[in-house]
Amino acid sequence: MTTQTLETAQDTRTIRLADGDGWFTVCDRELLTPGRGVAALLPDGRQVALFVDRSGRVHAIDNRDPFTGAYVLSRGLVGSAGGRPFVASPLLKQRFDLETGACLDDDEVSVPVFAVRAD
Amino acid sequence: MPVSTPPTALTAGVPTIVVVGHGMVGQRFLEALADRGLTPAAGTARVVVLCEEPRPAYDRVQLTSYFSGRTPEDLSLVEPGFMERHGIELRVGDPAESVDREARTVTARSGETFSYDTLVLATGSYPFVPPVPGKDAEGCFVYRTIEDLLAIEEYARNARTGAVVGGGLLGLEAAGALKGLGLDTHVVEFAPRLMPVQVDEGGGAALLRTIENMGLTVHTGVGTQEVTAGEDGRVDGMCLSDGSSLETDLVVFSAGVRPRDQLARDCGLAVGPRGGIVVDEECRTSDSAVFAIGECALASDGRVYGLVAPGYEMALAVAEVIAGNAASFTGADLSTKLKLLGVDVASFGDAHGAAEGCLDVVYADSRSGLYKKLVIGQDGTLLGGVLVGDADQYGTLRPMTGTVLPVAPEQLVLPAGAGGPVTLGPSSLPDDAVICSCHNVTKGAICEHTTLPEVKKCTKAGTGCGSCVKVIGQLLPQPADQGLCGCFEYTRSELYEIVRTLGVTTYAGLLDSHGREQARGGDGCEVCKPTVGSIIASLAPTVGASGYVLDGEQAALQDTNDHFLANLQRNGSYSVVPRIPGGEITPEKLIVIGEVARDFGLYTKITGGQRIDLFGARVDQLPLIWTRLVDAGFESGHAYGKSLRTVKSCVGQTWCRYGVQDSVKMAIDLELRYRGLRSPHKLKSAVSGCARECAEARGKDFGIIATAQGWNLYVGGNGGATPRHADLLAQDLSDAELVRLIDRFLMFYIRTADRLERTSTWLDRIEGGLDHVRDVVVHDSLGLCDELERLMADHVGGYRDEWAATIGDPERLRRFVTFVNAPDAPDPSVKFVPERDQVKPDLDILAGPVLAIRTLEGTSS
Ligand SMILES: Cc1cc2nc3c(=O)[nH]c(=O)nc-3n(C[C@H](O)[C@H](O)[C@H](O)COP(=O)(O)OP(=O)(O)OC[C@H]3O[C@@H](n4cnc5c(N)ncnc54)[C@H](O)[C@@H]3O)c2cc1C
Ligand code: SF4
Ligand code: FES
Q: Which CDD domains does UniProt cross-reference here (chain A) (predicted)?
């Protein structure tokens, strides 16, 4: 196994998403691979895509790809452009800024973002 | 016979131009007319073309490429719609039979008669067949038209030996073709050396050695005395002038050409004592209303030109004269560069050193078949030269003819390491130097453009023999940034070399060490991550990275398809494709696939690659599905990866009455050998059991067609939106030779191709094209083959089925859940509705609670 896995294995932090006034506990931070996403289900049925970038920061955006309607953004590839992290939809490859939810390839489109913490 | 009247109002009252002969020069003339607005469409002339052959003009210069897979259609010189667009009346298969100069009419074989104001003869030449006894026996051919080649190909099927009479340019080409058809080939040349017209004695000797090394038998200094035939009337041998004889099943005469001037003779036009229609500097014959251009003309300098470039110049001159301008053709040089049987041969200017007081600078190395000679005048000007074995300098030296060389001539002929060679870049050429001699295009004209396709389109440079393309490439501005993406300034093939030589095993390591400054330390992007992931995967056993694509950091590099080892479909579900090597499957396994599909409610479809695609699986179902498939003996089909897809096969010799080899077994062997091989793009293959080609192998990246002697390997084929027939790489290979050659070919492709570049585009892009690839993988010109084979051996030895490796490992299985916080909850957005007794995605669900309208817009964009 590589060193990265060892590092994350020691990571005992928990990821929480803003939910109304409180925080909804999602999972252990170690379940996320840097550069890759996972999907989480909120109590109200909404789907959230969670990512960890290379610097260790956690991001959360809506899981639904607005271009196709499919709930797949968590399965896209993470990258960075000009220092800002983005995810590219696995279907038609449009990119979304992980901090603002804005689509980088179409000014008119954006996805909701969620407040998230890992501690 | 009634005189044919102009068919449309457009051409009423305008002069009529009749062109006899629609060969290379005839077509060039029509294009020159169109460029000058002398067409029916422009309302300025009626143009009628009488074409003897059963097809419009084609590229005779490239005729031999028919044997390496170019179809007659590929060879066409006529842009689709050209005749219609300009309103030109082309009469295919209807030659001119007579000319009445008094009445100014031409009568065609169909009986139709055309009046002309201007008549242009472009009848070309015919192959000269020496009047030896037996020359008409069955099995004697000439080498000039597509029909000739078709006939030779057909006859060669039942022949073992072939002989070519004539060791000139065309004779050697024909010999190469016969050899390519699997015949034991002889060349009989009357002169004491090969290519007597183009090269001198030393050059001929270098050529001879190389050609003999290729397995051709050359007889120089002997003439053909008689062709003998058996009782069935078919050729069985030849008697030579030195008293010896030769057994042969087929004879190709290539003893020179003669101008086709019979039509001109019959109507009383002046012809030369040794043939050729006499023309003046404007290419006008002895009748001022009649012109002659191309190989049928005896030019004003007293020569008949047997090359296409001078013919093109004549065509342009005549079009210019008809348009009312001044133009002339007073002669051309006989420079040629060819690749004969893989050997570069070039001669230019005064190749034989005929000028008074000139001296030769010669370098010869008989071991490597190299011969270079420059002819230098008394005052130091370059007068001409001969290059055999390595003619790279032709492109720069020819345009320098007539000038004093900027460096000592011996430096230009010596090999590297011996004080030379000084490579003279094309930048040292003056602006008026002719770079493309086929189309007479100067350096200045080329430098007005920025890309090769643009140069070809606007100036035609590079569209003739192609020998100038390399120099054109050097003259054009180099694209500023060919980097892979915003993160790397290197191309894919450069990154491949970096990973291979430095043994880089992680993406992050590569990005931080070789990425662009601003991208280092970042997350990369969706372009370079999978590309680098694929490079590392294809080199994994060699550089010591994990062979499992989802280990450690590699997991984060893969597109979702690779990440879940399945293909993402439009509603977020995945499809599953088990490997069915060669398309052969037992009933038991078929039943398992059926049961799995039924139990998981999957939509099933037979693919074009002879296997079965199961659609509609949720992420969490993938491991369950694969557990059953792996238990039944299936492996991943890699339908999700940029890697080998399938090797299709026809049923072959085992069952088919036409088959000559076991195509199914070969397909299975190849599919199992290359399964899992990560490459720049997907790879497809097929094996056909005979020339009927039921497996459509020539539409594949590498296709194999059985012959009675073994296998023919074709490469670079493609179906899809830009279909391309694969080119013949090598023929009559044994099983082992075939596999070894494919190993090398694939590894060379993986090493040098760009991201998402299929073999077809790669082959068209790389410098030197198919010939270069053949040099590298067949003749090992770069000394790479051992390494390429070793890399493939590493791959074959390191292969593990990804799905078997996944379902056996709980850690790896953890990713196959829809929700990280609710592993047991199925994806609520993946739903299906019935269609034709199966299911299809329920897209209504995806319209979603919000943004329904925007979604529609987005989808259609
Ligand atoms: C195998 C091969 C390789 C060659 N390689 C090279 C090379 O590398 N470089 C180079 O410069 N040259 C090469 N050549 C020579 C080149 O092909 C010719 O110079 C060129 O084709 C001449 O063009 P053309 O139009 O004058 O004659 P052609 O192309 O022969 O066209 C003449 C046409 O006129 C037709 N015709 C004749 N009589 C009549 C009639 N009465 N009515 C109607 N139609 C008629 C003929 O059927 C023919 O189609 C090669 C030739 C061959 C065969
Ligand atoms: S390619 Fe030949 S061997 Fe194969 S099925 Fe067709 S006819 Fe039979
Ligand atoms: S020199 Fe033949 S195409 Fe340019």
A: Rieske_NirD
Pairing state between β B434-436 and B382-388: unpaired
B661 Cβ below 6 A of ligand 3: no
What is the pLDDT, as a whole number, of residue B857? Answer: 33
What would the mean pLDDT of B146-157 be, rounded to a whole number?
94
Cis peptide before B56 (omega within 30 of 0): no
Return the number of CB contacts < 8 Å for A and B. 130
CATH: 1.10.8.100, 1.25.40.10, 2.102.10.10, 3.10.450.50. Which one for A35-113?
2.102.10.10
Task: Domain B644-798: give its CATH code.
Answer: 3.30.413.10
Return the bridge partners of B46, or none. Answer: B16
Token look-up 């007659």 returns B72
Paired with B258 in beta bridges are B126
Which of B649, B655, B656 has most ligand 2 atoms within 8 Å of CB, for mutation? B656
Mean pLDDT computed over B821-837: 85
B129-255 has CATH 3.50.50.60 classification: yes
Query: C-alpha dihedral over B580, B582, B583, B586, to 10 degrees?
Result: -70
Count Cα neighbours of B761 within 13 Å in the Cβ-side half-sphere. 14
**pLDDT confidence bin for B852, thresholds 50/70/90:** very low
Domain boundaries, chain A: 35-113
Q: Which CATH class is domain B3-126+259-322?
A: alpha beta
What residue of B is the nearest CA neighbor of A39?
B819
Q: Compute the average pLDDT of residues B420-432.
A: 65
Tell me what the mean pLDDT of segment B514-526 comes to: 88
Cα(B326)–Cα(B627) distance, integer angstroms: 82
Q: Label residue A5 by pLDDT band (50, 70, 90).
A: very low
B-facing residues of A in 67-106 (CB < 8 A) are 67-72, 75-83, 85, 88, 90-91, 93, 95, 106
A12 CB near a chain B CB, below 8 Å? Answer: no
Judged against a pLDDT cut of 90, whether residue A15 lies above it is answered with no
Instruction: Confirm or reject CATH 3.90.480 for domain B559-636+803-861, answering yes or no.
Output: yes
Q: What is the rounded distance in angstroms from the CA atom of residue B46 to the CA atom of residue B27? A: 16
Q: Which residue has the higher pLDDT, B46 or B411?
A: B46
pTM of the model: 0.56
The Cα A112–Cα B332 span in angstroms is 72
Cβ within 8 Å, pair B486-A81: yes
Distance in angstroms (rounded) separating the CA atoms of residues B762 and B769: 8
The least confident of A15-29, A70-84, B116-130, B264-278 is A15-29
pLDDT digits (tens, 9 = 90+) for B605-637: 999 899 999 999 999 999 999 999 999 999 999
The mean pLDDT value of chain B amounts to 87
> Which protein residue's CA is at the shortest distance from atom 1 of ligand 3?
B436
What's the complex ipTM?
A: 0.85
CA angle, residues B612, B618, B619, in degrees to nearest 5: 105
* Partner B contacted by A59 (CB < 8 A): no
* Superfamily classification of domain B427-479: BFD-like [2Fe-2S]-binding domain (1.10.10.1100)
Topology of domain B333-424, CATH = Enolase-like; domain 1 (3.30.390)
The whole-angstrom separation of Cα B321 and Cα B302 is 21
Question: Which residue, chain included where needed, has tokens 């390591």?
Answer: B509
Give the residue from chain A lying closest to B548, CA to CA.
A1
